[in-house]
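Hello K.,

You asked for the raw outputs rather than the summary table, so here they are, unedited. I folded two proteins back to back in the same session to keep the settings identical. This is the first:
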Amino acid sequence: MNQVKGKVALVTGAASGVGRADALLLAAQGARVVLGDVNEEAGQALAREIGDAALFVRHDIASEEDWRKAMAATQDRFGRLDVLVNNAAVCPAGSIEDTSLDTWRRVMRVNADGYFLGCKFGVQAMKGNPAGGSIVVMSSVAALGGLPMMCAYSGAKGAVTALARSVAVHCKRNGYRIRCNSIHPDGIWTPMTQALLPNLDPVALGIGTDPMARMCQPEDVANLVLFLASDASRFINGAELRIDNAQLISGL
């Protein structure tokens, strides 16, 4: 318990799915959490559920002005930032032949530009902290192995994986004590996945019980986010951590 007691964390895409699981676990383990999302109704509801340790901010991660407002609100309410979880994303299907330039640009705006801005503002906010901080970048196995039916998504996740390495080295060389790591799940049983694959039966998938399962629960990802946010991971920096039940290396 209290693995992140006293820390202040900002989680993007916090209103549902993995972001919601991240925020709930971080708060349960002693953090104060800033919940960023464009879904105001669900975000406010989560803030009420968590209580005084939570603050909701409406946050389009591709907007530089929204990042300024989110950081200012974090500072005003909690006094500092220790953890940034870059989690919000969009995930339209489409191969290289099917994906339009407009779709590519829309995905890059959120999944790449938004994470760039997050890292930029996160480093600025945390570099003066004596204890430093932790930036967690939500990538995907699509960045490592490629998903043919998610061309734009794969491209954006590849970009933010490289970005995380760059940020990790930059902070180390400048003595900021800010760590930056990327997480690479395969399938996660979230509303976004369910919308893409509406005919999947979660019981048949064997989530959490079948040793062959590819899909995990949001809480499986949140457990790794908690570890990376905590001081227990203080020497883990620039790492690419898969949550895929060996899918990438098994080829099944």
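The second followed immediately with the same parameters:
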Amino acid sequence: MSLVFSAFTPHPPLIVPSIGKTELKKLSKTSSAFKELERNLYAAQPEVILIISPHGSFFPDVFTVNSCVKYTADFKDFGDLETSCEFNGDFEMTHRLRDATKRKHFPATLISEPRLDHGSSVPLIMLAGKLTGAKIVQLGFCDLDFKTHLDFGALIKEQILLSNRRVAVIASGDMSHALSTDAPAGFNKAGAEFDKKIRELLMAGNISGILNLDEKLIKNASECGLRSLLILLGILQKMHYDYRELAYEAPFGVGYLTAEFI
């Protein structure tokens, strides 16, 4: 089949009701956007979900493809000992990606980590919890240049199009962590500028503009989602899609952008 769903989501653990509790009301826009994405993902009925996360195992010079029989998503690190979910791994897509990276001498490596990080767990539990038949492949980015991240996305797209199954892609990442004085990275005026530029460039479909963002601006913004987004944009490159921003808010000094590429 082909790509049937693609989205960019934040991953605040507070969006999980058992963790957010009374704070959840501060994330009302993001919560509503997640509910819309959950409906759209369910309607797409993917057989495979590729999740791109900033917070799995990280290697500076290679991308990661996580290959496991089963994955566990939970929030024990955030004090929630009850919320958890299991997902089956997908060896077919994992092996397709491994073989493609080897053939093209592309910088990627297989890892095996059954417990998912929160960058994967938040969107998967919130969006895919009802898709009991869907299998998961987790991907991770690296420190290589932005163009190489687009190229990794293009390689992934080739394997999606060669597959005979319905595939969804979720790129997980938060925007600037420096939007207020009580933000995780403290305040930096670059934070709001970075978030504004990314949103404008996405609306304009200007991938070149994203590739050529000022490196100092990116560093000062203290973001964690740009490389996830670039891999997704590489997957979508040369495909016709409509970009829909579903929500943007920053109640805790971190920019949360939720968007769908249709």
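The mean pLDDT is 96.

Happy to rerun anything if the numbers look odd on your end.

Regards,
P.
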